[in-house]
């Protein structure tokens, strides 16, 4: 493209200065609209994610138990006469360290304090980061003699204050070991215990 004293010369012919200015304005308008739409798209996506965000756990769950690293919220239900169900979420509400490999075990206990039925599960996220929640679902097939249901849960956690060091080969530095933390919540479907509200 070459500018002459009469206008702009194009490959097909000569454009007047007015036509060139009009074409530049049109191009700028198209670019401006494209940028405006691109800027609005992320805002619309954020609004959609706000609508899809899950409700804060205490608002929808009736039971709660907490350790210094993780909080579990759940509801108990009986979808069938021989099934005890726990639906809930695990949350790492304040710890900057990840909670790793959270596993759950629901155990049916009889009147003599013996385990007579059990089921196991884990959260789908093997790392539970700060302020992250992850769902869990346990269905226990009961045998009929259960008087209560106990929940065992365990996870790995690297405690920054109590770092366990294991000397590695001379070429490498020491490796940090994650602690396995195991807990028991008794009678998790009770109307009076482990209440979230």
Describe this structure in words.
- The protein has two domains: 2-52, no CATH class; 57-185, Immunoglobulin-like, CATH 2.60.40.
- The chain is an alpha+beta fold.
- Residues 43-53 and 161-169 have low confidence and may be disordered.
- Helix content is 18%, strand content 44%.
- Strands 7, 8, 9, 11 and 14 form a five-stranded antiparallel beta sheet that branches. A four-stranded antiparallel beta sheet has the order 4-5-6-10, with no helix packed on it. A three-stranded antiparallel beta sheet has the order 1-2-3.
- The protein is elongated.
- The protein has one helix and 14 strands, in the order βββαβββββββββββ.
Strand percentage lies at 35-45%
Total beta strand runs = 14
CATH class group of the largest domain:
Mainly Beta
Global mean pLDDT: 78
| Low-confidence runs of at least 5 consecutive residues | 43-53, 161-169
Helix content: 10-25%
- The best one-word shape is elongated
CATH topology tier name of the largest domain: Immunoglobulin-like
How many domains? The number is 2
Spell out the helices and strands N to C: EEEHEEEEEEEEEEE
How many helices does DSSP assign? 1
**How much is the radius of gyration in Å?**
30 Å
Q: First CA to last CA: what distance?
A: 74 Å
Question: Could you describe the largest sheet, including whether it forms a barrel?
Answer: 5 strands, antiparallel
């Amino acid at each position: 493209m070459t500018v002459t004293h009469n206008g702009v010369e194009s490959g097909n012919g000569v454009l007047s200065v007015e036509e060139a200015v009009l074409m530049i304005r049109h191009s700028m308008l198209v670019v401006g609209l494209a940028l405006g739409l691109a800027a609005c798209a992320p805002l619309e996506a954020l609004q959609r994610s706000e609508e899809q965000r899950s409700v804060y756990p205490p608002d929808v769950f009736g039971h709660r138990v907490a350790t210094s690293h993780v909080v579990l919220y759940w509801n108990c239900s009986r979808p069938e006469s021989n099934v005890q169900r726990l639906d809930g979420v695990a949350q790492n509400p304040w710890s900057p360290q990840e909670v790793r490999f959270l596993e759950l075990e629901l155990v049916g206990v009889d009147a003599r304090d013996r385990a007579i039925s059990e089921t196991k599960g884990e959260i789908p996220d093997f790392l539970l980061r700060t302020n992250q929640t992850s769902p869990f679902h346990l269905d226990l097939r009961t045998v009929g003699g259960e008087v209560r249901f106990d929940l065992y849960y365990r996870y790995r956690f690297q405690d920054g204050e109590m770092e366990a060091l294991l000397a590695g080969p001379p070429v490498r530095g020491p490796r940090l070991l994650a602690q396995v933390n195991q807990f028991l919540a008794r009678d998790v479907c009770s109307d009076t215990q482990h209440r979230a509200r």
